[in-house]
Amino acid sequence: MTDAHHTRSHSAWAASATARNTTCAGAMAMVTLAGPEVESEAAAWGTACHQLAERCLSLTVDAVYYLGSIEKTESFSFTVDEEMAGCAQEFIDYCRERIAEYTADDKTGVCTWWLERNFSLDALDPPFEAGGTGDCILWFPKWKMLEIVDLKGGRGVVVEVKGNAQARTYGLGAMLEFPELDVEIVRSTIVQPRAPHKDGRIRSEEIHVADLVDWTSWLSLKMRLSKDAIDEFPGIENRVDFDDWAEIWLTTGACTFCPAEGFCPKRRKEALAAAGQKAVDWFEDPTAVVPVALNAPAISSAEELGHTLDGLEALESWIKAVRAHAHTRAERGEKIPGWMLAEKIGNRAWIDADEDDNDIEAFKLAEKIRKALKIDDEQNLFVPSKVKSVAQIEKVLGSRKTELAKLEGKLWHKPVKGTNLVSETKTTRTPAKSKPEQHFEALAETEKQ
C-alpha cells in the first residue's frame, strides 16, 4: 500500500493540471496568487474512493468488505457506503478483467501492474518540476501495450478520454518511468461510474508511441510558454501591467477546478459578457451603492433562449468560483466588508461515537442508548462495529421520539461541519471564527494548561 493520497506532494506542473496549463499559459502564474488549496468535500470524497480502490486491489478483496468503515482524507472522514463501494468496485473489476483477459491470451506471459505509481517528466528537461501519479498502470508484454486506468469519482463534470491531456501525460510518464519496456501502444482508460456518458462509464483511447512522441513535442512547447508567462508575470501591484499581461497570457476554456478562477480577469470578462449591461455596470463600478435590478427576460425564440442559457451557464460557473474564492479568504482570517463566516451544522450524531470504535465500544454505546431511552432489548440497535444512526433510533421510538429530542447535548449532538460565507444583512447567526482565530485560541488554551 502506498501513502494516503492526501499526504502526497504535487509537482509544479501536475499531470492533473495539464489540460488547464496547456490551454492557459498564464494559469501557473495565476495559481501562485490563490494561496494553499483547501480540500473540498467533493474532492475529498474522490480521494477516499481512490484509497478504498487501491486497498482492495492490493489486498485482493472487494469493496463491499469495507462497508461501514471509515476513510479519512486531509479534512474529511467518510463512512464507506454503497455508493462509494460501488464506484470503487467498478474500477477494481475493470482492472481485474483486463489482467484476466491478458492471462487468457498469453499462457506463458505475465501482466505486470502497479498501483498509485509516481512518475516524473524530468527526462524531458522541463522548465519546472513536472509529474504525477497513475492510479493503475498495466503492462501487457505480448500486446506491447501500456495501459493507464484512471478512476474519476465525480458526477458533475464528465471527463472525455479522447485527446485527454491528463490521460496522455499519465501514459507519457509511465513510459518514462519504465524505459526498458518495449511499448508500441499506450492505452488510456477513464472509469467514471457516477457520470453517464454516451460511450459508457468506462471509455478508452489508444495512441501509437510515434503519435505520443509528437504530442510530447507539443507538450514541451506548452511548458515553455508557461515558463515565459511566469517570467513576465508582473504581480498585481501594478494593475495596468497586470491587465496587459492577462490579456496576452490568459485563455479560458479549461477553467474547471482552477484555483484562480474566482479572481481571474479573463474569466470575469467572459462571464460578464453573458450578462446585460446593467449587471456589468454593477460589477465593474465599485462606487455603485445599490445593486441594479435586471429586467425579466423578454419572450424570445428557442435559438435566442439557447444562446442565453449558454451564457448563464458561464456566468453561474464564474459566480460559484468567486464565492468559493471569497470563502477561502474569509477562512484564512481576511475580513470581507458586509460578509461573515457562519457555521454549518451537521447531521445528528451520537456524542460518544468514535469513528474508529471497535465492536466492543460500539456495543457499549448501544447499551448506553438502550438505558437512556428505555428501549427493549429486542430492538437491534447494534450491528458489528456500528450503532444505528440517531434517525434510525428515532424511528424505533415512534411516538416516544420527544424523549430523544430532550437528550440533545447529552446523548447526541449536531457537530459543526465547516463554514459558509453569508451576507451579514441576511443572517442572525453568530459569526464563526476563522482558522487563524481558532489556531490562536487553541494555543492560548494550551498555554493556560
Key structural traits:
449 residues, alpha+beta, Lambda Exonuclease, Chain A, 6-stranded mixed β-sheet, two-stranded antiparallel ribbon, 14 helices, globular
Describe the structure.
The protein has 449 residues and is α+β, with helices and mostly antiparallel strands. It folds into four domains: 5-227, Alpha-Beta Complex (Lambda Exonuclease, Chain A); 236-291 and 300-331, no CATH class; 339-346 and 416-448, no CATH class; 349-413, no CATH class. Helices cover 42% and strands 16% of the residues. The chain is built from 14 helices and 14 strands. The chain has helices spanning 18-23, 27-31, 41-59, 82-105, 165-177, 209-232, 239-249, 265-272, 277-284, 302-331, 359-373, 390-397, 401-405, 435-448, and strands spanning 13-14, 70-72, 77-79, 112-120, 130-140, 145-151, 185-191, 202-208, 339-345, 349-350, 382-383, 386-387, 412-413, 416-423. Strands 1, 4, 5, 6, 7 and 8 form a six-stranded mixed β-sheet that branches. The longest helix is centred in the C-terminal third of the chain and has 30 residues, at 302-331. 27% of the residues are buried.
Note the overall shape.
globular
Tell me the number of helical segments per DSSP (H or I, 4 or more residues long): 14
Helix content: 40-55%
Q: What gap, in angstroms, lies between the N and C termini?
A: 39 Å
What is the fold named in CATH at topology level of the largest domain?
A: Lambda Exonuclease, Chain A
CATH class of the largest domain: Alpha Beta
Largest sheet: 6 strands, mixed
- Bin the strand percentage: 15-25%
What is the number of strand segments? 14
Overall mean pLDDT stands at 84
Given the helix and strand composition, which structural class is it?
A: alpha+beta
Show unreliable segments.
none
Order of helices and strands: EHHHEEHEEEHEEHHHHHEEHEEHHEEH
CATH architecture of the largest domain: Alpha-Beta Complex
Radius of gyration: 26 Å
The number of domains is 4
